[in-house]
Fold this sequence. Notes:
Helices cover 44% and strands 0% of the residues. By secondary structure, the protein is an all-alpha fold. The termini are far apart.
Amino acid sequence: MAVPRNALKKWEKVREFALGPPEAVEEFPWGEPAGYGLGKAGRVGIPLESKGAPAAEVLCEWVEESYRVIAPKRLIAVLDGG
């Protein structure tokens, strides 16, 4: 199944942003991501190409919010320029 170009560009933008914070890495601890939208730890897939799908900027905000929840305080300080 071909991925629409706009969805692929959005995914690439969000992925690049997600790998930007200090010590951020991409991992697939359970193998490949679940194709049906829900991963083992409650992670939810978001369709990128659907009408009404969130903009890349909103997804980047979600990524940053999630990072700030789990990152150690020392990395949050680095992220904030301290």
